[in-house]
Write a structure and sequence with these properties.
The protein is α+β, with helices and mostly antiparallel strands. Helices cover 32% and strands 31% of the residues. The chain has one domain: 4-Layer Sandwich (Phosphatase 2c, domain 1). The protein is built from five helices and twelve strands. The strands form three sheets. The protein has a five-stranded antiparallel sheet.
Length: 248
């Protein structure tokens, strides 16, 4: 399958800085397509959460570049027989989970050393050919968009006095609880990773219509920006970040 993609991030209304962060990259492992997409939403009540979200995506980017792309030969058997898609997928999904726990430890240590108050949500999509694995903690989401909009991740949040409060996050107390979801990529579906500033006022009918018609990465990019404009017009004021991947 061919991968179309787009992404967008913008700071919120009356906010000095964007505490969201994102990373996306796709590459070949021999003959297999591998991609990783990540969005993080720094906790708004902590002044330095852009540090936590930025450090998280940087470490995942390094994981992809150094431990995957730079070491492709690891995934070739000694007899020059290529490992199966399933074998590569299992190895990468387990390695990514280990990396996420390491990132939590690093972010926690760095913020404590700098006397920062910081934490972040994180949701990650790892795809190896037609297999995908999602990891998430906090309330950033991944949706699958086809004939409808279906949430694939589970929010780790609750409502206190009319306001949303995180039950888990990366980099600070109470710490992460990485939920894993696995399935097969569905052709002509769009996988939308988004922070709450993007999905909270997401126009589902419009998303289904415009992503369904998108045939190029440029059109996917335009879809995201249009949905962002709709959410701002509807009154959204938070930082807003999203990555959209469509497999055709």
């Amino acid at each position: 399958m061919k991968l179309l993609y787009g992404y967008f991030s913008e700071h919120g209304v009356d906010r000095e800085k964007n505490q969201d962060a994102m990373f996306f990259k796709s590459d070949l492992f021999g003959k297999y397509n591998v991609c990783v997409a990540v969005v993080c939403d720094g906790i708004g009540s902590f002044a330095d959460s852009d540090f936590a979200s930025g450090l998280t995506v940087n470490h995942i980017g390094e994981w992809f570049d150094r431990n995957l792309k730079a070491n492709r030969d690891i995934y070739i058997d000694a007899k020059s027989k290529r490992k199966s898609v399933r074998t590569i997928y299992e190895e990468l999904k387990n390695s990514l989970l280990e990396k996420l726990w390491l990132i939590h430890a690093v972010v926690s240590a760095e913020t404590e050393a700098r006397q920062f108050k910081a934490g972040t949500t994180v949701c990650v999509l790892l795809a190896v050919e037609n297999l995908y694995c999602l990891y998430s903690t906090g309330d950033s989401r991944i949706h699958e968009i086809g004939s409808d909009v279906r949430q694939l991740t589970e929010d780790q949040s609750t409502e206190i006095n009319g306001k949303s409060a995180l039950l888990h996050c990366l980099g600070c107390f109470p710490g992460p609880s990485f939920k894993r979801t696995e399935n097969k990529i569905q052709k002509n579906r769009t996988y939308l990773l988004a922070t709450d500033g993007f999905y909270r006022r997401l126009d589902h009918k419009t998303a289904v219509k415009i992503f369904g018609k998108a045939r190029t990465s440029g059109e996917i990019d335009a879809c995201i920006k249009l949905l962002y404009e709709y959410s701002r017009a509807a009154g959204e004021k938070d930082d807003s970040t999203s990555i959209a991947l469509k497999f055709v």
